[in-house]
Predict the structure.
Amino acid sequence: MTALVSRNAWSLGLIGLLLVLVAMTKIIQPDFGLSGLESLSRAALPFAFATAGMAVVVIVGGIDLSVASMMAVCSVTAAVLMPSLGGVAGVLLVLAIGAAMGAINGALIVLTRVPDIVVTLAMLFVWEGTALLILETPGGGVPGWLRQGIGGYFVIPGLPKALLLIAVIVAVIWIPLRRSKSGLAIYATGSHENAAFRSGVVVGRTRVLAYGICGLFCAFGGLSLVSLTGIGEPVPGPYLLASVAAVVLGGVVLGGGRGGLLGPIIAVFVLRIIRTILTLAGVDPNVTTIVEGTVMVAVVMLATVVTYRRVRV
Amino acid sequence: MSMVSEERNPVQLGRYLRDNPVVPLIALLFFLIAVLEFMKPGMIIPLRGGRDGLVSIFWVGNLIKFAIPLAMLAACQVLTMLTAGIDLSAGVVATVSAFVCATLSPLIGIQLAMLIALGAGGMVGLVNGVGSGVVRVHPLIMTLGTGLIATGCLQVYQRFVISTGTEIPQMLVWLGTGRTLGLPNGLFLFVPFALVILWIMRFSGFGRLLFALGSNENAASLSGVRSWQVLVALYTLSGLIAALAGLLYLGMIRAPSLSLANPLLLPSVAAAVIGGTSIFGGRGSFAGAIVGALILRVIDTMLTLLQMPQGARILIFGLIILTVTGIYERIIRQG
């Protein structure tokens, strides 16, 4: 039990923070209830998937600057294909495309041996251009069930479908992976690439896998974007910055090898609820940006100081 | 850089190119310009188009003019990358400085407004420096965060000055749009600036400290380098440079907006990387970044000329950055 607590100390701390923030919301706005939570988790959907994807590549020791662009590609592909192809086939195709894009990113990093940050910077432009080529202006459409699929509650009132979707999708992809040999390889590569290589980890393939998973999560992100708005939007949203912030806030160390997906996902909700609180408190939306940035920087500073302490002692 | 000589003596060539990264880049630049001339005869060599002159001064001037702000922002990236950092707030800082200068000029006079604009840039840089140098936050996160905060501050600030109107200092307009002997006046700012940066990197003690920190931070601190002091000074300098670039860009575009220089950020990273600066620190050249900025501008012109849809242009831009850095990495690795 203590081992479990100490291993997940960071996530537990975040959950505590989240509960405090929810309580604060309730105090500021007594009306805030289940429907507030429902819309909060709906708005958090694309952020959560972008963050999950980013977390996987940061754990493997890289970074993917092209997450927002990949989400844009997936969103426009879905919006263009679904009216003619139908829902299920469309969803599967988009997921495959997302995974393929991520794998291409990873393969390029492995083959060219150019640093991840440079390759994905270049691919940010490539995917953004691709999205614009597929759909020049926002348009297209998605079947109604996809839109209804993310709104409302599941079975018992109080369990938002969006929240359930995030939990189920991330768990189904991540937990088996993490328990498998490949998952171990991802962590090994992230903590020390040379050591991993000498212990027989196929480093290149592990990298490609991690980036592919990132692409897959981005595809889910893109799908949730179209489902939220009902149309495909070729211009990438603000998901890059937000996902990096949530990953770091979620206790994944930049440089790789440490952290999981639970922390970052909770961090997404922490960041979203801060926004909600500020909006409810009647703070100017522009000030909200300042507060978000400050929170992000302050949290990272605090985390760095704490980890350094621990190393020194 | 022919294939034959590469096969004959790959190791030596690689070593030579690693020590002189600018040489193949200049070759690439001229190759791209030749392609451009081939695509639209007479564009660069007016004689072929039936006009006078061997080289179109106007075209060259235009190329240089638009490459200058990019090269200045690339200086921020080169300097910070030397210590294995990066400055992702540079684009926002340039925008902030331009906007502050344009809106304060009618209120408090031009000189003071420009000083405050530079001061704002220095402030953001100082915060970056304290964050990454003293508290040891990863520079990528730190500069992204301060960029976000600065954007928010700018939006709040904008509401206070929305009624004052804007004025763009004449001096900046002269620097940004004027020409002397066919060449842009921006060079009057850029040439001394570039010399100072080159001097800092090549000959000053500060420059040596940057290289030392980037090559091996442990070794540097064991030899008595106080890394936090160097990093604070470095990021403050980077903020000032970005603010200066913003002022010049304001004179060039003459329309302040809340996202004026933001689109220059990622190309500035690309220019630094194409110019042979390693994102892991310890290796970098500002001369290379200048050529990198010129190359990016030529590519831009080329893609505009082809009249491709916007999407294809962005896509090809990305592919070219990838190809150039990929080839480059390969050449250097051979050495």
Summary: Chain A has a mean pLDDT of 84.
